[in-house]
Protein 1
Amino acid sequence: MTQGLKNRGRTKADMDERRHAAEEFSGAKLPTIAACPFDPQLAEKNVENMIGTIPVPLGFVGPLLVRGSEADGEFLVPLATTEGALIASVNRGSSVISAAGGAVSMVVKDEMTRGPVFRAKDIRHAAEAARWVEENFEAVKAAAESTTRRGKLLSATPYIVGRSLFLRFAYSTGDAMGMNMATIASEAAARLIESKTNTALVSVSGNMCVDKKPSALNSISGRGKTVLTDVTVPRALLEEKMHTTPEAVAETCYRKCNIGSALSASLGFNAHAANMLAAVYIATGQDPAQVAEGSMATTVAEVVDGDLYMSVRLPAVEVGTVGGGTRLPAQAEALSMMDCLGDGKAVKFAEIIGAVVLAGELSTLCAQSAGQLGSAHSRLGR
């Protein structure tokens, strides 16, 4: 297999040739991978060395009633997963949320970040460069925004350690997830900063972004869309549908999500938020690696006036409804199931995601408080 073969074009013939070479090299036969259901050229911006596709089982939950600023109504939400019992569990939570009047969901912050790192002569030089950025923010903003139609630079927060100057750029990226947009814009801004401050750009990503890694900074400050979602489930409904009580669920959440997470020094204080995020991301063409940040959810449960109040805070929901994997046919269809494909839909999509995560959290915490988790996985997931 030559380097030239691996880097050839995107036509079906090119894809088939690469796959045949892979089969010959590995000795494996790949007929299912070969059954690509779309023109490979549609994926030219999504993958290199394409040899086919990997089908992932797709199901849905709902109708899930969401009461958001953009997502207001009942939705069928597609989930792609190979974990048996996941969709059944989230569906159970969805039915209870809907019967309780729906989940209130809102996006309270929407900023994608990129954090370049510069080398300075010393701390004084680094501080002077940071001051220049603050005093000339409009020039930095103009340089960044010259590279994009959608992106707007909102802030540039400095952090100095020795000779290293980090700048955490925050952008509004419209309905795109915006990571590539932020990278290109940050490079343009960084070149201007270099020329004006005599610092040297070491990396356009200095890990203060923080991209695809759990971090306290993103947990506190947010990245992408910060989503809040809550619901109050009446005691009678909880006992009838979930066979548990508000007190039992609240105690399970407290001892598991709060004490257990704190004891293990986890950055995620939740039951299994990553499960729902991964399934939605894969189904809708998002970057599944960003589940690492999305997993830092905080789930709370309280008994309020005898009923169960539950809420989830998701500090880093990094999704888009244009660009990236949303261009692919199946992923576009999955987004269209929720009327979340295209411009003006990203906030709506994030609100739905918040409600789906809450549904999964509610179901799992109820199952654990009632001692049903093992039996459900034994019945559905083995």
Note: Residues 1-7 have pLDDT under 50 and may be disordered.
Protein 2
Amino acid sequence: MSLLPRWELMTDEARDKTKRIIVSAVLLLLSIWVIRSLIPLVIVTLLGYWTLKWLLKNN
């Protein structure tokens, strides 16, 4: 037997709640994936900015 009740037997409220949970989980995973891919870019950009600022200050 399935852990989740069959879709046809679920009430409308339970269906809506299940859809919201699935959408929230997908959005959370997508946002984590995007943020994780942007972190190295942010680090390199900040290091470049600080290096340029330091080089211009010394001249």
Note: The chain has one domain: 10-58.
Protein 3
Amino acid sequence: MKELIENLLKLQTLEFDETAGARREGRIAELRAQIPAQILGHYDRLVARGKKGLAAVRNEVCTGCHMHVPRAVILTLMHGDDIQLCDCCGRYLYLPEQAEIQKTAGREKGSGKPAKRNAPLQTV
């Protein structure tokens, strides 16, 4: 299943990349031949509506619709047993590689200021 998601991700990258060269069409046809028709049909319906067909899951949130993804779906993605769809937006979900997670975590840290703590409640 991991190979299937990787092929879909490569296909999405090629189809949404406007600067790709002349070999683009041949590579797209090659990838489409490796993906089952039912999965490709669902992907194409999303693309026809102007949406990307895949979305990464980061911090238990779908990056396509920004809705919470159930932990059971994330565990299934971790095991690689089956492909999963987002319940809200219908995109195929995938877990980004560890290196990509570390890069984005470094960008999202913000200003570097420590978080403010709330003062403990006083009982009378």
Note: The two ends are 59 Å apart (CA to CA).
Protein 4
Amino acid sequence: MQDVPEIQRRILAFCGFGFRLPFLRGNASEAPHVQVEHRTSPRPFTREPDMPLVLTLASRNLFQDRLRFAATLTGIVFSVVLVMVQLGLYAGFGRMVTTMIDHASADLWVVAKGTTSFEDLSLLDANLEKRLTAIRDVASVDPVVIGFSNWRLPGGAMTPVFVVASDFRQNDLLPWNIVAGKVDDLKQRGTIAADKTYFQRLGVSGLGASVEIRGYPAKIVAVTEGIRSFTTTPYIFADLASARAYTGLPPASVSHFIVRLKPGADRDRLKQDIQSAISGVEVLTPQEFANRSRSFWLFGTGAGAALFAGALLGVIVGTIIVAQTLYSSTKDHLYEFATLRAIGCAKSYIYRVILYQAVLNAVIGYTIAAAVGLIVVALTATSALPIVISKNLIGGIFLLTLVMCVVSALAAIGRTIRMDPVMVLSR
């Protein structure tokens, strides 16, 4: 290697290159020369494009201290996994909250005024069915009965269950994911469907088991898989008459009405007609009812706020860790960055180096966190509250990780802004 300016030699050593940097301004050969050692295998003179050199400088600066880099990745992975799990729980919780509404064959729901969710035990007069049927463009009206009840365990103890019933002859709100038995058998009095997830909790072995609900005998004639309750209380499907007995609901009361439209009917107009004809009720589309239920359970109970608080905590922790690491790395290489400025490097070039370090941190950390997240999703797929991570959530978290790391780089950039290139003359 021939004689080169001292400050250029220092920055070349920092970058790991044996050639002049492409971002130098002016004629570097005019600077004072010093004698430096010869390399046994000098690298040929090449001129690299500006962008790859920025990436190389950023990566070497980032990977130079592997222990620090590992600590940074740990912080990023921890924060991203925390955010992913919290938002995945939020999505999974929101989906479970509306599971009954999503699987009902309803065009409109008629509920008591002020009803907050599907599980709200507010009651309606059963005689409203005739008035609803008489309204133009209404094809059918079917009642829904819901309520909590007591399930007797083999040892005599009681455990709560949530009974759901509709007119199975109209296919209103049928159990789905049937793995044993038949739905048609539920039309008989005293028959029920239960999910296999809760068999151990309910003390039953499977199809054909005879049980007792609120003192009334029942028989499991259909078994489902995957119909889990967000309240952890098992769902039990039954016919209307049996459900009234299990919940103690009088014949003159129902929980909700499912309304179907005639072909070609205007749903919005029918909604207004029902609302005008019957007082004391609310008419909701399935989407409106689902949104109301989701809003109540996620925000009315504070569950959603807790999940968002956990996700926000993850973002804050990750941002602080990355900012601290980038700031420390920039401070350790402050003289090298000052050398770049002294030989004519633009400030924007240095800023890009720091930003590229942040982006590399984000990409590598997110990749590891995404792998961990997929494992968590697989492990919770059959749990009481599965974590749901959609494609949109994956993309959103990746953008969030980039923003988190780029914002962290601002602290390091702020340090270089205050840097005086003259400081290289003191060394």
Note: The two ends are 23 Å apart (CA to CA).
